[in-house]
């Protein structure tokens, strides 16, 4: 497996991975209505591409194709962090998080942070993130519980 920067032509595959993960993994913690609001079928792929122009996006790829991706903004915010629903628990998330942390260090960031789903919270906690706030976010008419979580990077140089 390799971790590489994303390419514009990855967009449709990344969106499908996002959609499938939410509908096949996050469904264990959210209702069907909530996952439909979070990842609607009719999501605009051009809007998906446009929103990521200033992000650092890393893609995990193996012989079978793209198996995960993670997005980091300049300010340390992790926007998307998803691993293929059939490849959970294989260390892909660990490798993606390591890549994000390395990038954050090169950007001289003091911390990284994210709004984390109920489902992803245990993974982020294992990676040293701490809950800062529980919140209920309104998205397309549905309230979804998530957690603002952060991790200090202790940049000393």
Walkthrough of the structure:
The protein is of the alpha+beta class and 157 residues long. It is built from five helices and seven strands, in the order E-H-H-H-E-E-E-H-E-H-E-E. It has helices at 11-24, 32-38, 45-51, 92-106, 121-126; strands at 2-5, 56-62, 65-72, 77-83, 111-117, 130-139, 142-152. The protein has a seven-stranded mixed sheet with strand order 1-2-3-4-5-7-6, with helices on both faces. A hairpin with a 2-residue loop joins strand 2 (56-62) and strand 3. The radius of gyration is 15 Å and the shape is globular.
Secondary-structure topology with pairs:
Blueprint: E1 2-5, H1 11-24, H2 32-38, H3 45-51, E2 56-62, E3 65-72, E4 77-83, H4 92-106, E5 111-117, H5 121-126, E6 130-139, E7 142-152
Parallel strand pairs: 4-5
Antiparallel strand pairs: 1-2, 2-3, 3-4, 5-7, 6-7
Quickly describe the structure.
The chain has five helices and seven strands; from the N terminus they run βαααβββαβαββ.
Descriptive key words:
157 residues, alpha+beta, seven-stranded mixed sheet, 5 helices, 31% helix
